Structure prediction request, 892 residues.
Amino acid sequence: MNTIKTTCPYCGVGCGIEATVEDRATHRVTIKGDANHPANFGKLCSKGATLGNTVSLENRLLYPQIRGQRVDWDTALDHIAVKFNRIIVQHGPEAVAFYVSGQLLTEDYYVANKLMKGFIGTANIDTNSRLCMSSAVVGYKRAFGADTVPCNYEDLEQAELILLVGSNAAWCHPIAFQRIRKAKENNPNLKIVVIDPRATASCDIADLHLPVKPGMDALLFNGILAYLQQNGLVNQPYVDTHTDGFELALSEAMKTAGSIEQVAAGCGLTSEAVGTLFDWFANTDKTVTVYSQGINQSSSGSDKCNAIINCHLATGRIGKPGMGPFSFTGQPNAMGGREVGGLANTLAAHMDLENPEHVDRVGRFWGSDKVADKQGLKAMDMFDAIATGQIKAVWIMATNPVVSMPDADKVKRALQQCELVVVSDCIANTDTTELAHVLLPATGWSEKDGTVTNLERRISRQRPLFPASGEARHDWWIICQVAQRMGFGKAFNYQSSAEIFREHAALSAFENDAEHQLRDFNLSAFAEIDTLGFDALQPVQWPVIAEQTTGTARMFADGRYFTANRKARFIPVTPRPPVNSSDTDYPFTLNTGRLRDQWHTMTRTGLATKLNAHRPEPFVEIHPADAERLKLKARSLAQIQSRWGSMLARVEINPGQQVGSLFVPMHWTDQNSSHGRMGAVVNPVVDPYSGQPESKQTPVNIGSWPAQWYATILSRQPLQIAAAEYQVSVRGDRYFRYELASTEFGKDWRTWGRALLACVEQREDDNCWLEYSDPQAGYYRTAYLPERELRACLFVGPDCDLPESGWLGSLFAKSELSRAERLSLLSGAPPKGEADIGRIVCSCFNVGEKTIQQAVQAHQFQSVADISACLSAGSGCGSCVSELKEFLPKPT
Ligand code: SF4
Prediction:
C-alpha cells in the first residue's frame, strides 16, 4: 500500500489529504486528513472525506472524440490547431477564446494563459472564477495596488471579533469554519457576527445575526466608517502614514450612512442591532472580516469589498495577528488562477495588461512580441460574443457554463450555434460536453500532478494516486500539444508540470525588485526548483523568496502596499441596490448558493452516495408567511420564474428566509434533473469593474406547480424513464432513486410500472410482485422482488406525501427480505421494532433525523455533545452540528 500526500479538489480551504491506495486496478483508496497540513491539521469535511468514492471510472471521458466519433489524439489536436489557426487568420485573434476553471491546476492554468495572452495575442481567456471572486480581486487591487490576501487561518484563531459577511462558511468552507468554532470554544470573548439576508448554518455560533436587506452590505460598512470618525476611533496616524483617499471615502460614507438610524432603515435592520455591530467593530482591535460570494456576486461587489477594506484601513487593522479583510474564495485553485492571470483583465504573475512595462516584461520573458495589451472579454461578454458570432471558436476547460452561468439558456444557445466548441474535461456527460464538437479527455483529481493555492495564499501539491485512465492526458499537456501544432512549439516544449512550475516561479521573480517596482507575487525561491524538489514541495504561503523560503504568513505588516507610492487607497463607495429590483410581476428576490454536501455541478460529489442523502432534490427555501399566503405546501413542487427562465423545485419552508426572499441551491443540472438548473433563472447583470454576475439577487415569482401525480421509484438498476415532466435522479447506496411528477393526468400505473421495473419475461409473474392500488384516490404502489430480493419499487400518489427513501433504500443492501419486511414494504415504513433512520443529517456516520429524534427523546439529551457521544453524529467533520441543535429541546 502506498500513502500519498495531496490536496482536496473542492473548496478554497485547501485541506491536505493522505490517500492510501489499496488497489490500483479498481481505484480503491482510503482517504484521511493530513495531520501535518497547516490548513486542516487532519480534519476533513464530508466532501473531502468521501473523495475515495468519486475516483471510479464511472462517467469518465476516456478518449478524444470529434462530433461524437472516437478519434486518436493526433487527429483531435490537429483538428483544433488547424481550425483555431484558420479562424485567427480570417477573423483575427479576437475571434477565439478559452473559458477555463478554478478546478485546473496552476501549471495547466499557466500554459493556457501563456498560449492565449502570450502567443495567440488576445486576452480572451476567462475563468469560472469570474463568477466566484473577481470582485474580491478588484477590491484588493484598488486598495492595495495588488491582488493580495493579507490574512491567514491563524488570524481567525487570534481574532476577538469575526464578521462573516455574505459567507455561509459552515457549509461552503467547512474546515475553516470548524477552526472558527474551535477558536470560540477556546476563547469565550471571541464574538461572531453573521451578516447575511438568511439565517444560515453559520449562525449557529453567531453572537449576532444581521439579516441585511439583500444587496445592502456596502451601506452597513459605510456606516461603520462614519461611526469610527464620529466617535474618534479612526487610527489617524496609520491613515496619515500609510493610506491615501480617506477624506473622500469618509465624505461619501457620512453622506450615505451618517447615522445608525439611516443605516438601519436602508439595511432593513433594527437600530439596536446596527448599533451593536458598530460598537463591537469600533472597540475590538483584533477584528477579521471574512467575506465571500454574498459580497462578490453583486452588481456592486467590487464596491462592497472596498467598503469593507476601508474600515480595516481606517483602523489600521491589517497586517497584524488576528485582523484584516479576508476574502474567502470558492474554488480549490481560484487563487492559482489569479497568480497566472487566468482572468481576462489580468496578466501573468500579478502583472497588468494595461501597464506597458508589464506587457514588455512578460513579452521578453516569454520570448513573444504578441503579448496582449488590453483586457479580453469577461465571462458574460465572452458568451455574448459567442452568441453574436464575434467569437467563432471557444475551448472550455474543466467547467460547465451551461449550468453555472447566469441566463444559462442563452449560454446554451450561444454554444449551439458556435462554429467550434472544444471541451476538455474528465467527465463524459455534462450539460456542456453535450454541445462540444471536440471532446478531449483530461486527467481527474486522482491522476493530476501539480499545485493549487488555497484562500490564504498557501501553495500545496496535488499528487497523482493513479496513472491516467484510458487515454486521458493532463490539461497542460493537451494545451501544449495544440500550441505546438499552432506553430508555438519552442515556448511550449514542457516535459513535466515541475518544469512549468519552475517557469511560473521564475516569471514571478523576473525583474521583481525595488528598481522595477516590487510585486507582491514572488516565488523566487522556486525559480530553479528541480523535479525532486517539486515532488517534495511542502505547503507554503507566497511570497516565497530566496531570503525567506518558509513563505509569508501575513502581508502588509510594515504598512507598505504595492501602489506607486506604497500607500493603500481608500475607495469612496456609494451604496447601490441590486440592478433589478422586485416588482409586482416578480415580487421575490432569489438568492443562490452552495449546499453542505455537494460541489458545483455534482459530477463528482454526485457519485458519493453518502453525499446525496443530505439534500437529494432541488429545493426552494421560502419563509412560512410567504408559503402560507401562496398556499405552498412543504415538499410540493413550485415553479420559480424570472424574466430570463424558470425552474422547478421542492418547497422547503424555512423561517431563516426573509419574507420576500427565496433561496435555491446551485448544483442541479440537466443530467440529473429535468428543471433544476438555477442558472437559467439568474439575471445576466454584472459588476461594472469586475464583470462578476449578480447571482444573489434576481427578481422572480413563485407559484405552485399543478402536479396531478407524484411518484418515487427506487431501483437496483438505472432506469430509462420517459414521459415525466418533472424528474430527478439520485444515486443511493446500491440503488437509484427517481422522483417524478407531472401536470398530465395519470396513466395505467400497473402496465407502466411493470414495464419499467422488470424485465419482459417476469412482468406478468405475480409471484414476483407486491401491489396495492386505489385508483379512485390516485394511489398505486408496487414492488418487484423475485426470490424475495428487492429489485425495484414504485409509489404513486396524488400529492407529495410519498414514503421517504431512508428505510426503503436500506432494503437494497439485503439479498432477501424477511416476511415482516415484505409485509411492510408497500407502506413505506419499517415493521414494528425495526429502525427507520430517516433523512440523513450526519453524512460522516450516516445518522438520520429519525434516529436522532428518537435518541434525543429517549435519553433527554440536552446538548450536541450528548448526541455525539451516543450516535457519533457531529463528531466527524462537524458540518452538521448546527442541524443537530435543531433536534434539542428549545430553551424555555
Ligand atoms: S473544507 Fe472540505 S471541501 Fe474544503 S478543502 Fe477541506 S475537505 Fe475539501
